[in-house]
Amino acid sequence: MEQEALLRVTGLKKYFPVGKGDLFKPKEMVHAVDDVSFEIKKGETLGLVGESGCGKSTLGMTLLRLTEPTAGQIWFEGKEVTRLSKGEMRSLRRQMQIIFQDPYASLNNRMTCESIVGEPLSIHKLYTGRERRERVAYLLGKVGLGAEHGKRYPHEFSGGQRQRIAIARALAMNPKLIVADEPVSALDVSIQAQVINLLEDLQNEFDLTYLFISHDLYVVEHISDRVAVMYLGQIVEIAPKDELYSSPIHPYTEALLTAAPVPDPTAKRKRVLLTGDVPSPIHLPSGCRYHERCQRRQVDCLDGVPELVFVNKDHAVRCRHF
Amino acid sequence: MEKLLEIVGLKTHFFLDNGVVPAIDGLDFWIGRGETVGVVGESGSGKSVTALSIMGVVPNPPGKTVEGEILFEGSDLLAYDAEQMRRIRGKEIAMILQDPMTSLNPVFTIGNQIAEVFMLHGGKSHPEAIEGAIEMLQVVGIPNPEKRVHEYPHQLSGGMRQRVMIAMALSCTPKLLIADEPTTALDVTIQAQTLALMASLKDRYKMAIMLITHNLGIVAEMCQRVVVMYAGKMMEEAEVESLFANPMHPYTRGLLRSLPGVDRKERRHQRLVAIPGIVPNLLNLPKGCRFSTRCEEHIGICKEEEPPLFARDRHRVRCWLMKD
Q: Which domains are delineated in chain B?
């Protein structure tokens, strides 16, 4: 079953300048996203995992051009997003929405739940008056909130309920793609499960496509169809979920998978314990970015950054030794 | 096992303008010498307030420990005056917190901060104390400790800072280490390093650990016994294998079921089983069992009367369903 790609990204880069630099000293750059290419098919969920600072959130923001990419192309339904004017971009954003991690920071405290969810409708001049109120009530219903919640302010809701409001807001425009940036990380486990179920139900009902960004490998395993692993601004491995979790190829993926504690006291673990920290994204290591921490390092790992190579049709890895 | 710390009928309440919040509402459990006990629960369950109560650092006002005993090696810490408590804190019982950035002082070098412990509790001179600090940094696996000892917290990564916190906590070889979400702010690979370090140091110093966490994976890996808390009360207590294999309280069962990744092979493609509803407001607790509003197995009495702890198969369970 070959589906068309809803979103295609090629050679995407996003660098942030640090400090000023001068005539004799070039500006230093944070290589937040560095040569990322991937596709998301219609109706699928691509999970994006990685440690803090690996560039996963920047990637999410760059896809919607909430921050402008430094280089590379983004294609959405065959349209090159990176070439659109501001106005065109604004109307395209109806199709692409984002949900953020912290539901305490992403909702305006001085707006009622109703006006938060309704705001995108007025910005895009889609519904007015009674229609708008009906649409908002419908959306709140879809995310499991009642009409009586409409007049309340964010502080009157719990974390899980706030995240539901953020989801309703993202749904308001009938988007095709939702970038969910750590949507359940701030929530307690019992509430986390509620929100994950909700996201899955909405995906089925509205035929949504998700880019699901998270550092929680179990959550990603549960919700994704395919998973991409990021390290220092690059995708080091991308594969269908079952394949990635059962037979990871990249040594970093392997280390990441064994590092997550298993909620089973009888489980036997062979853990790959990484030494050291993630290197600075400003002064990148030469050669393979992972070589300093790699348990399978060899001499030629220092010769330039390895390419992302396809092992089979769906499984690509950025490592010379597999 | 000999009891190192025993908490009896502890109540710590917060007196606010709009009412009294019973953050801990009658808590009984103990920690044996050299034992690791996990305290799990969702936010607002009272895990951290338990830690603060043991250390005697509940912010007052509005908080106050109103009832109960905290017996450490048999003597009640709640009866101690400030001076006596100061001698216990950091020496006999040490604590590490979730966020290593806010728990280190940004204007002192990490060496000076660790050295302070040696000077206050060990009566050492400053140069001796710095020597001690270097040694501790070595113990927690910080490379190049002679150089690092003169650095400030902002020069270290999150994982390194947490190692510094652990070094500081262990400087006086405490008998009990209270670790409040010690790895929550860290990445998984760094979390794995930190947990491995804590496990090896526990063996080396033969100390007991009270490990507060919301992560059941960490509990499974590190703990011998588990206390499950909900809205200020202990709901279940059992040995770790038994708790995971045979959870008896509906809340414990719900928590385990709502985890993605348990029984991976079979359940991978299934829907998660969430616990419905939300944690009750502590200012306005439901009548009867405080979990009854979210419990799918509740019976008549649950909404009438608060259940006591029932002992069954070496579990202690606060649930009417356990009544014979």
A: 3-88+214-322 (3.40.50.300)
